[in-house]
């Protein structure tokens, strides 16, 4: 059942919003607490819900690894995504300007 959900099944919008919130918290920790300059990740290309969450947080696709992993009888490809500190800070500033009372 879980693989079906990951392989294009519908995820409720509340769950997507929760995932975006978790991703945002991780970016705050990475950039504010740890002082990182860039954060990157790999996500299987069929995981469109996760890709959308990352894009909403400012990640951009930077690469694609074709047939990166064999899982059972399938071969999965991987998208590489990243965000730079300056990009994230600009996005956070725009969000603050758009929603002054929202404490993200």
CATH architecture: 3-Layer(aba) Sandwich
Uncertain runs are 1-6
Structural class: alpha+beta
- Total individual domains: 1
Strand arrangement in the largest pleated sheet: 1-3-2
CATH class: Alpha Beta
Shape by Cα distribution:
elongated
Gyration radius from CA atoms, angstroms? 15 Å
Query: What level of helicity do the residues show?
Result: 40-55%
DSSP, total strands: 3
Oligomer: single chain
Q: How many separate helices? A: 4
- Write the element-wise H/E pattern from the N-terminal end onward: HHEHEEH
Cα(first) to Cα(last) distance is 33 Å
Report what the structure shows.
The protein has 104 residues and is an alpha+beta fold. It has one domain: 3-Layer(aba) Sandwich (Aminopeptidase), CATH 3.40.630. It contains 4 helices and 3 strands, in the order ααβαββα. The protein has helices at 2-6, 13-33, 48-56, 85-98, and strands spanning 38-44, 60-71, 74-84. The protein has a 3-stranded antiparallel sheet with strand order 1-3-2. A hairpin with a 2-residue loop joins β2 and β3 (74-84). It is elongated and about 50 Å long. Mean pLDDT is 85; it is low at 1-6.
């Amino acid at each position: 059942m879980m693989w079906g959900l990951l392989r294009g099944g519908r995820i409720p919008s509340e769950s997507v919003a929760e995932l975006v919130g978790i991703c945002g918290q991780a970016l705050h920790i990475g950039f504010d607490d740890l002082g990182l300059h860039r954060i990157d990740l790999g996500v299987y290309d069929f995981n469109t819900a996760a890709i959308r969450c990352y894009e909403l947080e400012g990640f951009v696709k930077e690469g694609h690894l074709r047939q990166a992993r064999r899982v059972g009888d399938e071969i999965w490809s991987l998208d590489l995504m990243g965000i730079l500190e300056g990009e994230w800070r600009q996005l956070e500033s725009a969000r603050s300007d758009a929603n002054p009372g929202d404490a993200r």
